[in-house]
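User: Please fill in residues for this 323-position structure.
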């Protein structure tokens, strides 16, 4: 998430937990998929590995990441939306960049024309992180935003096994860190081909839990739509909440949800669990897999699968922008 950070404090890190613990999402329908810490760890550990050198735009590291993401979609049975999974464009610095876009067609003949976007950015800052030393110079970006990418991948696998009524586009955005370039490009491209977008659910830095809150993640632009209320209704619990600092720092406009809001004027918002006090390694070389709370992530992704299933499968739209 591109934003100005005021670090209010630092709390101690929580252990990641047992990789073999599992949870079964309790939604209507027949689900054979079980979310596991092991699968989440596998995604994050590869994306945040030194081999990918911080996933900066225009590098071999981000190319390797895109290949991994495309292969994961293919393995799940998620089809490319375009002729390829890679939605390519050139940045202003003449760097070749590409979003990774997968597509799952809905099962309802009418509702499938409405596309629900679930996304996260997969680029990071390369060697530009704080805390660089001779021993460590790579900004691996485990929380920012391999955690969000892992959530999208697990949700893609879940929905592939539980086909939704509306079509779902799974998007891993590039070039977020340098100005939301990937989401701006894709939103304009989809607008130009008249692709209806129903809503956008963006996932940003969810690798560590909030502290002393009665909700799991805050939702940017919380008061702008009925999205959070309806999501929580289907979840049966308060998953999405209001965080005043999100308004103070104008976070609604600082992640990949925003270009879709400006192009399509539909509910387009971001969940985040980084609250400026609970994770000290933003854009830091120590933002590595070992610090991610996998148990928290597993439980959160399970909750997301339930709330999103309710919204994507409802017959009448209940998520709307507020006047």
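Assistant: Residues filled in for all 323 positions:
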């Amino acid at each position: 998430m591109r934003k100005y950070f005021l670090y209010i404090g630092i709390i101690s890190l929580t252990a990641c937990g047992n990789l073999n613990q599992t949870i079964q999402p309790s939604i209507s329908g027949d689900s054979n998929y079980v979310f596991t810490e092991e699968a989440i760890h596998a995604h994050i550990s590869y994306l945040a590995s030194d081999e990918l050198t911080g996933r900066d735009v225009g590098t071999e590291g981000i190319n390797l990441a895109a290949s991994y993401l495309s292969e994961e979609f293919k393995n799940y049975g998620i089809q490319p939306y375009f002729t390829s999974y890679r939605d390519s464009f050139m940045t202003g610095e003449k760097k070749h960049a590409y979003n990774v876009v997968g597509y799952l067609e809905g099962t309802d003949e009418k509702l499938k024309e409405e596309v629900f976007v679930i996304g996260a950015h997969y680029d990071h800052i390369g060697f530009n992180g704080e805390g660089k030393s001779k021993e460590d110079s790579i900004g691996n970006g485990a929380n920012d935003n391999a955690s969000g990418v892992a959530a999208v991948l697990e949700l893609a696998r879940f929905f592939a096994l539980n086909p939704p009524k509306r079509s779902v586009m799974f998007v891993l955005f590039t070039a977020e860190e340098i100005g939301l370039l990937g989401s701006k490009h894709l939103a304009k491209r989809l607008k130009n081909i008249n692709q209806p977008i129903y809503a956008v659910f963006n996932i940003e830095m969810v690798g560590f839990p909030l502290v002393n809150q009665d909700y799991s993640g805050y939702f940017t632009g919380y008061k702008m739509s009925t999205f959070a209320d309806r999501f929580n209704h289907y979840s049966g619990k308060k998953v999405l909440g209001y965080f005043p600092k999100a308004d103070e720092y104008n976070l609604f406009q600082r992640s990949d949800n925003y270009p879709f809001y400006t192009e399509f004027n539909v509910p387009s918002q971001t969940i985040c669990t980084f609250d400026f006090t609970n994770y000290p390694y933003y854009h830091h070389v120590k933002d590595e897999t070992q610090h991610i709370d996998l148990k928290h992530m597993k439980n959160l992704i399970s909750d997301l699968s339930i709330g999103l299933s309710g919204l994507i499968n409802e017959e009448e739209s209940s998520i709307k922008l507020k006047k």
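For context: Residues 104 and 159 are 8 Å apart (CA to CA).
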